[in-house]
User: Fold this.
Amino acid sequence: MNSLNRLMNYRKTQKQGFTLIEMLVVIGVILILVGIAVPNFLNAVKRAKFAQGQTQIMTYEAAVAEYMTDTRKKIPSGSQNVYYALSGLA
Assistant:
């Protein structure tokens, strides 16, 4: 009986590692946090791309306005002509 008590006390004092329940709880919490973070990240990427597109449009508008002011002409049609006009090569 005495050796059984010592064995039980030894197991209680020599606890190492984590139980399966503890590991499952931690994994569950991590999955919940990932489930919250991923959609927020994807929305942030979408908003950043939209803002970048708006900035590019404003840049093109400013370049067209500057071209029209400098040359007193409308932008020529055709993508190659527009490229040269906006880059100052025309």
Notes: The chain has three helices and no strands. Helices lie at 2-13, 20-71, 79-87.
